[in-house]
UniProtKB/TrEMBL annotation:
UniProt keywords, alphabetically: ATP-binding, Coiled coil, Membrane, Nucleotide-binding, Receptor, Transmembrane, Transmembrane helix
Pfam families reported in the protein's UniProt record: AAA_lid_14, CHASE2, Sigma54_activat
Protein name: Putative transmembrane signal transduction receptor and sigma-54 dependent response regulator
Record bears the keyword Amino-acid biosynthesis: no
InterPro entries, sorted: AAA+_ATPase, AAA_lid_NorR, CHASE2, P-loop_NTPase, Sigma_54_int
PROSITE patterns recorded: SIGMA54_INTERACT_4 (PS50045)
Entry's Gene Ontology BP terms: regulation of DNA-templated transcription
Record-annotated Sigma-54 factor interaction domain positions: 463-692
Residues passing through the membrane, by range: 269-289, 296-317, 323-343
Organism the protein comes from: Nitrospira moscoviensis
Length: 846
């Protein structure tokens, strides 16, 4: 991408050379005009015409005899080198001394070994007489600004720039400037002739006329003296500071730069290309790594940093870095990555979805393995203790038992190590899952303004709420709606799942397409495939024409699978196939139909519990739970009741063509105290009834006609302890539930060791098994409390019971078996031995 962007930026340069050239030199021009003024070398004296000399000699070219006199005087004053810009392309006219002047001038310059003349092709007839030449060419950039002079001009003989020729002659050094083609000029001041503090010709002439040797020596001794006798040229050069100046002036600034040793370097093509490529590559990498606003922020900061770096390097090392190509290529990259992200966002989200699914499945497997290993570790610990105790009692079998104990210890260490590893893996998987979810929905705090805004947006979608939790859920759902992830809406009946499903569709890029809602519970089992996937004509009796199914109707749009928890297992696998492959066969068709549909599913059933109880396919559950939102029941957001009431009363009254009634305070309080098992739907129905049966404008409590046997929130039964309360077991159970039956975490919270917690849970499991008549599933549910950790408890319970059975199996008599259990499970609280007793007797009776 960087390579492409640099190439494109270079190509753009040829398309808009003026803009690109100006941008490329922006740092250089800025630095030149804003830095402290560069000093003028004390070795340089420029003698230029001034108004007084123009009055004295006229504004035309000077008489060559006069020039010869000046050169001689300057030479006699001890000048190191003399530079002269004088055209020799024509003979002097009679009024300027004619041939005599020319002869004197030629004679003078022939005798001057340290003289440099400016080159002019038209000067050829007299050039052979000149001692040294320097060219006066300048490099004009595409934006018409002169920033450099060509380094060397190759004619028959190499001619250096005028300034460089003078410098070489004065310093007796042949060192060429560093850059290959052009030499950047570091202008003093604004780059004008005045900035070099020229000496007025009239003053010098006065000193020559007065034979003031002392003055002349003071001015010229050991100096490089440049005589500028010509009137200004018609085609001046434009300088970076905006001034216009003669090419000679540019060369004089070059000379001053060399004398003050303040060279500015620019880079060659290869180095510029490499820098541009490296910088653009870095920006591209940043944008692809940190997507979204953060990436853009870093990229913009990178652009600014590069601009500042270019200025810094110029100020510190007098090196000009390229600007135009790296900056424009970086912009190209920014646009390119934005486009790329846009184009690949679907694919990325699909991959993310796959990752999420894989991680969810892996996490479930690891969690299960962890539970098994944890329980196995506890069991081994118990066996080890029993083996130790037996070894202490029986001397003959000591050796044998010690070996068993050693083997158990080793196994225990292995299992504990595996448990630790499984724990680490689980933590890592959960972290990955978390960050994947966060990648889809980035959390952010909500302030009052945002809450108001969200409330407004909700209202436009028909959702009435002022509950912060629900608004936050809406905010997250809105973000998730943009991605093609499957959405699973959970919640009690009437909490607004369909309303939110429609909102997901309207907030998604598919909002312009079809939204198809299918109530899975209402689809007849026989017609399931035909309804969902369609059929072909004649595929069964009554199929008189081809018919498209719901999935096809929803193509490019959204399908809402309501009551997904009520789907039969065989239909679940059919649905799973469509979700995985995005294609299906119409009933009777031989070719598959492919569709592009966004899935939103909803249920009021506990699908996790369905998975653990086996009535809902785990793979389908993982497929559906791309983004899961749980809609809170109305009793958990009673603050919404007044706004819902206001909205519903207005709607209902409008439907009936009556003015909207109000609710009295006690009626409102009464509504707020209700249980609302049917949630918002029930509230609306209650109000519909009240409005239909009462024509008053103020509805009191009695108008609401809620039946007396309803539960109010205050009457709500407290979560009843599942088990009788034997000395703190309920508290332990609570703690276990809070810590998701993680023994280590529970032990830490209770300040116990893990095996004590294990013994308590084991006792509770045995007790629950007895109370549930040996029904494992029921007993596990009684311990787990709800479905969220049912699978974990089930695994533990089965393991505890399995271990108990393995202990009692060798015995024929219940008493002996119970005695062995007492010995083996000696850390089990005493009160639980009644349950062990009952379980042993039941098992042996079987
Ligand atoms: N927050 C809300 N604002 C306004 N109306 C709501 C809200 N929540 C639910 N409703 C209304 O309550 C009724 C039931 O909502 P909806 O059908 O979306 O619930 P549901 O959870 O899908 O129910 P079920 O599980 O029985 O299918 C609808 O008339 C809906 O408009």
């Amino acid at each position: 991408m960087a390579l492409l962007a640099v190439t494109l930026a270079a190509a753009l340069w040829t398309w808009a050379p003026v803009t690109f050239t100006a941008l490329d030199h922006a740092a250089y021009d800025f630095w030149l005009t804003h830095r402290a003024p560069r000093p003028v070398s004390s070795s340089l004296v420029i003698m230029a015409r001034d108004p007084a000399s123009d009055e004295l000699f006229g504004v035309e070219a000077l008489d060559r005899a006069l020039l010869a006199r000046l050169i001689t005087a300057i030479d006699e004053a001890g000048a190191a080198v003399i530079g002269l810009d004088h055209r020799l392309d024509h003979a002097s006219p009679a009024q300027s001394g004619g041939a005599a002047s020319d002869a004197l001038f030629i004679e003078t310059i022939k005798n001057q070994p340290a003289l440099v003349l400016t080159q002019s092709t038209a000067d050829q007839p007299l050039l052979s007489e000149a001692v040294q030449l320097g060219h006066l060419r300048i490099s004009t950039d595409a934006d018409h600004v002169v920033r450099a002079v060509p380094a060397e001009e190759n004619g028959l003989a190499a001619v250096p720039p005028f300034g460089l020729a003078l410098y070489r002659l004065a310093r007796r050094s042949g060192a060429p400037p560093a850059t290959p083609d052009t030499v950047l000029v570091d202008y003093a001041g604004d780059g004008s002739l005045q900035a070099l503090s020229p000496l007025p010709l009239s003053s010098v002439w006065a000193a020559v006329e007065a034979h003031d040797g002392e003055r002349l020596t003071e001015w010229f001794k050991d100096k490089i003296v440049v005589i500028v006798p010509q009137p200004p040229v018609a085609m001046p050069a434009l300088l970076p500071a905006g001034q216009a100046a003669a090419p000679l002036t540019v060369h004089l600034h070059l000379l001053n730069m060399l004398l003050t040793d303040s060279r500015v370097c620019s880079l060659g093509m290869v180095s510029r290309a490499l820098i541009s490529f490296a910088f653009t590559g870095l920006i591209a990498w940043t944008l692809l790594l940190a997507r979204g606003p953060l990436g853009w922020f870093i990229a913009m900061a990178g652009l600014l940093a590069y601009g500042s770096l270019a200025l810094g390097v110029l100020a510190a090392a007098h090196l000009v870095l390229p600007l135009a190509v790296p900056l424009s290529a970086a912009l190209v990259v920014m646009l390119g990555t934005a486009l790329w992200n846009q184009l690949t966002s679907h694919e990325r989200v699909r991959l993310m979805e796959q990752d999420m699914l894989r991680l969810q499945q892996e996490a479930a497997a690891v969690r299960e393995a962890l539970v098994l290993r944890e329980t196995r570790a506890d069991t081994l610990q118990e066996d080890l203790q029993a083996a130790r105790a037996a070894a202490a009692q029986s001397a003959e079998e000591q050796d044998e038992l010690m070996k068993t104990a050693d083997a158990l210890r080793r196994q225990l260490t292995d299992v504990q190590a595996q448990e630790e590893e499984a724990r680490g893996r689980l933590t890592e998987l959960e972290r990955q899952l978390q960050s994947l979810r966060a990648a889809v929905i980035e959390p952010a705090r909500l302030n009052d303004i945002e809450l108001d805004r969200l409330q407004d947006e909700c209202r436009q979608l028909g959702i009435v709420t002022q509950d912060t939790g629900l608004l936050r859920l809406y905010r997250d759902m809105k973000k998730g709606a943009r991605a093609p992830l499957t959405v699973l809406l959970l919640g009690e009946p009437g909490t607004g799942k369909e309303l939110f499903a429609r909102a997901v569709h309207r907030l998604s890029p598919r909002s312009g397409k079809t939204f198809i809602a299918v109530n899975m519970a209402a689809v007849s089992p026989e017609l399931f495939e035909s309804e969902l996937f369609g059929h072909t004509k004649g595929s069964f009796t009554g199929a008189t024409a081809d018919r498209r199914g719901y999935f096809e109707l929803a193509n490019h749009g959204t399908i809402f699978l309501d009551e997904i928890g009520d789907l039969r297992l065989d239909h679940q696998s059919k649905l799973l196939r469509v979700l995985q492959e995005k294609s299906f066969y119409r009933v009777g068709a031989t070719v598959p139909t492919t569709v592009d549909v966004r899935i939103v599913a909803a249920t009021n059933r506990d699908l996790q519990r369905g998975v653990s109880e086996g009535w809902f396919r785990e793979d389908l559950y993982f497929r559906l739970s791309g983004l899961v939102f749980r809609l809170p029941p109305l009793r958990e957001r009673t603050g919404d009741i007044p706004v819902l009431v206001e909205r519903f009363l207005a709607d209902i009254a409008a439907e009936m063509g009556r003015p909207a009634p109000k609710l009295s305070n006690d009626a409102m309080q009464f509504l707020e105290a209700q249980e609302w098992k049917g949630n918002v739907r029930e509230l609306r129905q209650c109000l519909e009834q009240a409005v239909a049966l009462n024509e008053t404008l103020l509805l009191g409590k009695e108008a609401l006609r809620l039946t007396g046997d309803r539960l109010t929130a205050g009457d709500r039964p407290k979560a009843s302890p599942l088990l009788p309360e034997p000395a703190g077991d309920a508290a332990v159970l609570d703690c276990l539930r809070q810590h998701e039956f993680d023994m280590q975490a529970t032990a830490k919270a209770l300040g116990w060791d893990r095996s004590t917690v294990t013994q308590r849970l084991k006792g509770l499991c045995f007790q629950a098994l007895v109370e549930c008549n040996g029904d494992h599933a029921k007993a596990a549910l009684a311990i787990a409390g709800d479905a969220s950790h049912l699978r974990t408890v089930e695994l533990k319970l089965m393991d505890y019971y399995g271990h108990l059975v393995s202990v009692i199996d060798p015995f024929k008599s219940a008493d002996e078996a119970i005695a062995e259990c007492r010995r083996r499970f000696k850390n089990l609280p005493d009160r639980h031995f009644a349950s062990v007793d009952a379980l042993v007797r039941r098992h042996l009776a079987k």
